[in-house]
């Protein structure tokens, strides 16, 4: 027994040293720099510049990533509730990392092999992944990336309110078809701004977050409807819907109003000419003020002379 105790004690000590060394390497930047709280305060998503006709209707965009950022106040309550119920039910009670979910993943998913038990990543951890991506560290990639995301999630929640984290999440999350952020997704699949999304539309978009191509309502409507109903079920489980509302919503057909400005451009030659003039105007602004704008990332609003009806 004494030999066994010494062996176990020695093994535990070695394991503790390995873990401590690994964590020290992580925090000291051995696996890449982890942004500090002060750096997280300066987060800015790239945003597409919008081009409007003379009646203020949208006719096109210039972008590197097709994204339009929106504030939290623009998000309907049922959209936020759908997200919380489906992706992170204890979002308002943790500080970036959900310890209960991590324990569940360890015992059910890792030890017991139950893949249906769900993931352990909170919205804040998913946000960290969306913002900073993942890197390849060989066989330890998953562990390193997960730990970095946990650290970042905690730091994000120390510098941003819960509402700000939700807004950042919705503005960064990728949908399919080169679409980033909930505003562009709402316009693409339902031709409405996010503020006007109905609950059944919100549930479709939240459902896409699990696998944005598999649950793309244009490409795979049956999958999208089934996933939408899973979102409804989660909302009912956590008290956002009653049984009667759940039954009514499940019975609704999937109705899209698909709109893709890139494929169905109203005035492509006009947009090309406008782009040339825009570059010249921005160059003059930079010479006069020293302020440089990138029309593909800075979210400019560009008014034009185009008459949409005549066009």
Please outline the helices and strands:
Blueprint: H1 2-27, H2 37-40, E1 49-52, E2 58-62, E3 66-67, H3 77-87, H4 99-111, H5 123-132, H6 141-159, H7 162-172, E4 174-175, E5 179-180, H8 182-190, H9 199-208, H10 221-237, H11 243-250, H12 268-289, E6 301-303
Parallel strand pairs: 1-6, 3-5
Antiparallel strand pairs: 1-2, 4-5
Account of the protein in words:
- The structure is a single chain.
- This protein has 311 residues and is mainly α.
- It is built from 12 helices and 6 strands.
- The protein has helices at residues 2-27, 37-40, 77-87, 99-111, 123-132, 141-159, 162-172, 182-190, 199-208, 221-237, 243-250, 268-289; strands at 49-52, 58-62, 66-67, 174-175, 179-180, 301-303.
- The strands form 2 sheets. The protein has a 3-stranded mixed sheet with strand order 2-1-6, with no helix packed on it. It has a 3-stranded mixed sheet with strand order 3-5-4, covered by helices on one side.
- A hairpin with a 3-residue loop joins strand 4 and strand 5 (179-180).
- Helix 5 (123-132) crosses helix 6.
- The chain starts with a helix and ends in an 8-residue tail after the last strand.
How much is the average pLDDT?
A: 86
Helix-strand string: HHEEEHHHHHEEHHHHHE
Task: State the shape.
Answer: globular
Strand order of the largest sheet: 2-1-6
Point out poorly predicted stretches: 107-118
The rounded Rg comes to 24 Å
Instruction: Specify the helix fraction band.
Output: 40-55%
């Amino acid at each position: 027994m004494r030999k066994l105790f010494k062996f176990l004690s020695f093994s535990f000590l070695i394991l503790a040293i390995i873990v401590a060394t690994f964590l020290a390497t992580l925090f000291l930047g051995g696996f890449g720099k982890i942004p500090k709280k002060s750096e997280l305060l300066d987060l800015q998503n790239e945003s597409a510049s919008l081009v409007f006709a003379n009646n203020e209707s949208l006719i096109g965009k210039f972008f590197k990533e097709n994204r339009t950022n929106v504030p939290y106040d623009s998000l309907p309550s049922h959209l936020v509730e759908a997200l919380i119920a489906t992706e992170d039910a204890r979002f308002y009670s943790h500080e970036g990392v959900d310890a209960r979910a991590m324990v569940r993943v360890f015992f059910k998913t890792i030890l017991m092999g139950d893949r249906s038990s769900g993931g352990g990543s909170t919205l804040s951890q998913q946000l960290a992944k969306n913002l900073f991506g993942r890197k390849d560290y060989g066989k330890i990639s998953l562990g390193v990336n997960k730990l970095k995301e946990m650290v970042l999630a905690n730091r994000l929640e120390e510098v941003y309110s819960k509402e700000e984290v939700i807004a950042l999440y919705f503005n960064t999350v990728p949908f399919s078809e080169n679409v980033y952020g909930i505003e562009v997704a709402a316009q693409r699949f339902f031709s409405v701004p996010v503020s006007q999304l109905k609950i059944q539309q919100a549930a479709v978009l939240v459902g896409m977050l699990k696998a944005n191509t598999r649950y793309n309502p244009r490409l795979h409507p049956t999958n999208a409807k089934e996933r939408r109903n899973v979102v409804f079920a989660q909302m009912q489980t956590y008290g956002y819907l009653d049984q009667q509302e759940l039954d009514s919503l499940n019975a609704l057909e999937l109705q899209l109003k698909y709109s893709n400005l890139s494929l169905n451009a109203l005035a492509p030659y006009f947009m090309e000419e406008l782009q040339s003039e825009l570059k010249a105007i921005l160059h003059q602004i930079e010479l006069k003020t020293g302020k440089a704008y990138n029309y593909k990332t800075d979210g400019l609003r560009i008014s034009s002379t185009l008459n949409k009806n005549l066009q």
